[in-house]
Amino acid sequence: MTESRTGKHPALVVDGVEFGYVSDTTVLHDVDLSIDSGEFVTIIGQNGSGKSTLVKNVVGLLKPDQGSVTIYDDDGTPYETTEQPMNVLARYVGFVFQNPDDQIFHTSVQKELTYGLKNIGVPEAERQERIESVLDAVGLSTDGSQNPFNLGKGQRQRLAIAAVLVMRPQTIIVDEPTTGQDRKESKRIMEILQEYNDEGHTIIAITHDIALAAEYTDRVVAIRDGDVIADGPPERVFLDEQNLKETNIRPPQITQLGAALNDRLDADILEEMWLTTDDAFEDTIDALSEGEAVTKSSRKHQ
Ligand SMILES: Nc1ncnc2c1ncn2[C@@H]1O[C@H](COP(=O)(O)OP(=O)(O)OP(=O)(O)O)[C@@H](O)[C@H]1O
């Protein structure tokens, strides 16, 4: 099992987890992962590599076939997910679905945000205070009576996030929060998560957007075929060419990544690499991994 990285108590420990949806097909293979309280982690990997399956095992929506998942509250008290009902786990770990429409099911914003709070027994006066504060935090201005299905996609995504934040769980897991959002909306969502991380919450975000991962998070976990293949700071994970290939990261993302990592790509190269060539990709990775500035003159393939 992985040791604590930060010296703080863990937020969650995944220990030897195996999981398959149908017998004789395993999606997760003996996964070990430990995330400490207060970390901001991104999980990356190709489509179908098992990212969502892993986090659904963490939040208790799925139960491991082998191994265990333990989550921890603010004080470091452990709760093994197979032994706890969902309404107990929801106090300590919150999950924002990939598609907000799979999560939102009430006919008003107010009801959507009240539902979970009632389930965990938060008194009415505190419920209202929490709802107002979370709507403010995610930038949704509504009196609460609005039907969520009349909101835009970005607003529905932020409502889905708000429905988890309002519960104030120690750990918040968000499955591809920026998919289908424009750059401005994506950054806004990452900034909301950053603010909660600054307040001490553990944040785990699945994302295909490696530039956002590099910009906002301290640690990247790369998954391939239901196994963790890399785990470390973005500058280490993303500068390993094999990791990038195995997690299917290709240009133009690599140019955004370079800029997010250290601002070392000059504007000409950035523009050129949007045109996407394997040579450009490999040259840039070579240069970045050697700690070089990437400029037109440093490129081998012109
Ligand atoms: N409900 C399900 N029933 C059967 N198989 C499933 C189910 N959900 C996912 N799978 C399969 O499990 C594997 C892992 O899927 P999962 O959704 O965890 O991957 P992912 O890395 O999150 O993918 P994506 O990036 O596309 O969301 C895939 O082969 C997928 O087809």
UniProtKB/TrEMBL annotation:
Q: Which UniProt keywords apply?
A: ATP-binding, Cell membrane, Membrane, Nucleotide-binding, Translocase, Transport
What is an example of a Pfam family matching this protein?
ABC_tran
| A GO term for molecular function | ATP hydrolysis activity
GO cellular component terms, semicolon-separated: ATP-binding cassette (ABC) transporter complex
Matching entries from PANTHER family are given as:
ABC TRANSPORTER ATP-BINDING PROTEIN MA_1418-RELATED, HEAVY METAL TRANSPORTER
Belongs to which family?
A: Belongs to the ABC transporter superfamily.
Protein name listed in UniProt: ATP-binding cassette domain-containing protein
**Species this protein is from:** Halorarum salinum
Kindly list the organism's lineage.
Archaea, Methanobacteriati, Methanobacteriota, Stenosarchaea group, Halobacteria
